[in-house]
Amino acid sequence: MVSPKHHLFICTSCRINGTQKGYCFQQDSVKILQTFLEEIDERDLSGDVMLNNTGCFGICDKGPIVVVYPEGVWYGKVTVDDVERIMDEHVEGGKVVEDLVI
Mean pLDDT for the chain? Predict the structure, then answer.
């Protein structure tokens, strides 16, 4: 069983039938997910960080949403440019990126 240090959930507006549509999807959430995947790979953290795309969290006006466990920190209005900061400061540095917290 995999025991990652961090588990990240990213809303990609994935519907139950597998289609993706909605606010987070329209705001490049799939690109955000891809950028997290690239950062995890480049940092050789695949055993330490698990990543999942999710359906809607129900707070679309704050999207795209990224949730980081085990801390349970919710980040809102995340952009592709924020991914490196979340990886540097939160995942590797252990410090919450306060200005993105919702």
Answer: 93
d(CA 91, CA 49): 8
pLDDT digits (tens, 9 = 90+) for 75-96: 999 999 999 999 999 999 999 9
Whole-number Å distance between alpha carbons of 9 and 47: 16
pTM assigned to the model: 0.91
Asked if 79 and 33 count as a contact pair (C-beta separation under 8 A), the reply is no
Please identify which residue in the block is written with the tokens 């909605």: 22
In this structure, what token pair is assigned to residue 32? 């955000």
The helix or strand, by DSSP H or E, that contains position 75, with its residue range, turns out to be strand 73-75
Question: Token digits for 43?
Answer: 């940092």
Q: What is the DSSP letter of 50?
A: E
